[in-house]
Amino acid sequence: MPANLQQLRLLVVDDNPHMLKIVRTILNAFGVMNVFESESAVEAIDIARNEAIDIVILDYQMEGMDGIELVKRLRDEEQTSNPLIPIVMLSAYSERSRVIAARDAGVNEFCCKPITAKDLFAKISAVIDRPRAYVRTKEFFGPDRRRHDPDKYKGPKRRSDDPSKTEAA
Question: Quick one: which of 50, 96, 92, 84 has its CA closest to 67?
Answer without folding.
Answer: 92
